[in-house]
Amino acid sequence: MIESNPPLLLSYGALSAQIPAAVECNDPQGGVIMEECQLPLIDLNGLNSGNEMERVACAMAICRASSEWGFFQVVNHGISPELLRNIRREQVKLFQTPFPKKATCGLLNNSYRWGSAKATCPKQFSWSEAFHIPLTKISEEACYGEFTSLREVMMEVAGAMSKLAKLLAGVLAENLGHPMEVFEDVCHESNCFLRLNRYPPCPISQEIFGLVPHTDSDFLTILHQDEVGGLQLMKDSKWVAVKPNQEALIVNIGDIFQAWSNDVYKSVEHKVMANRKMERYSVAYFLCPSYDSLIGSCTEPSMYRNFTFGEYRRQVQEDVKKTGHKIGLPRFLLQNTHEISN
């Protein structure tokens, strides 16, 4: 058996025998050909326009996409192409480290994760590896070991994405009649995360998940992905592939924002498909509240009972452990008087 970094094929073992072997297809990159979508593309220069009509039009485009798609792309977002190239370069160096070292050396606050250790069937595979780092640890030199050049880039990326995330969250809050600063205290950097992702080539099948279908459990997520593609989202009850755009960042609404907005904004299920021939890299920033922050709908009558972010995270983890999948917001709907089953 060919060794891989990380050893995903070895880890999944007999489970992989349940998957049909990879077959050739017409896609030169080795992926499944399916319908591609162009996410709403929003030029954020409009928010800084001296023309009030342009500013309002840009804000409304953000809110409309958050309601109709749960996803959108932004250009002129204030994060330089050079910085994004730098983080890609540093990511590649980091993930090229031999697996035994990544798994044991405590890099980046010991945040290295890979595969799906508790997978019991192929649909629970995640053919990927990642570092999921709290913002409070990003500046600590001790987290980086020999990867000293990574620290400065990580700090710059985290700061830039944090600024952008709060700007977009403020626009969405203002649309619902709340001040743009409403999340400043709730979403302090101590509660937020930066995630470095790598999706290795998958020799088993073109149908393997790089990341299993899920919704994000935060307020919103900002994603920078490379040119390989693989991101898919649920739109009009079917999966569609997101066409990569190297000039744009992808933004998606999380569960907490859907609950807080009383379902005005939508947290949409999405996944990443593995690629047989090419590896994929991405960087994601998660705008999260503190664990004791009370999440209540901003309008009445509320569809959800009050809950804290910590309570939500614990429920998600408990459901995944018991059922193998996330149930999420339906657990907290007020009209649910019966137990949700798996």
Tell me about this structure.
With 342 residues, the chain is an alpha+beta fold. It has one domain: Sandwich (Jelly Rolls). The protein has 8 helices and 15 strands. The protein has helices at residues 8-12, 52-68, 81-95, 99-104, 107-110, 148-175, 255-260, 309-323; strands at residues 36-37, 41-43, 71-75, 112-114, 129-134, 193-199, 209-214, 220-225, 231-235, 238-242, 249-253, 270-273, 280-287, 294-295, 307-308. The strands form 3 sheets. Strands 2-3-11-8-13-6-5-4 form an 8-stranded mixed sheet. Helix 2 links the parallel strand 2 and strand 3. Belongs to the iron/ascorbate-dependent oxidoreductase family. GA2OX subfamily.
What distance lies between the first and last C-alpha atoms, to the nearest angstrom?
Answer: 36 Å
Strand content: 15-25%
Which homologous superfamily in CATH is the superfamily?
B-lactam Antibiotic, Isopenicillin N Synthase, Chain
Which strands sit side by side, in order, in the main sheet?
2-3-11-8-13-6-5-4
- Class per helix and strand makeup: alpha+beta
Low-pLDDT residue intervals, each spanning 5 or more residues: 22-31
The CATH class is: Mainly Beta
- Give the topology string: H per helix, E per strand: HEEHEHHHEEHEEEEEEHEEEEH
Measured as a percent range, the helix fraction is: 25-40%
Distinct helical segment count: 8
CATH architecture: Sandwich
Shape estimate: globular
Major beta-sheet overview: 8 strands, mixed
Radius of gyration: 20 Å
Q: What is the mean pLDDT?
A: 90
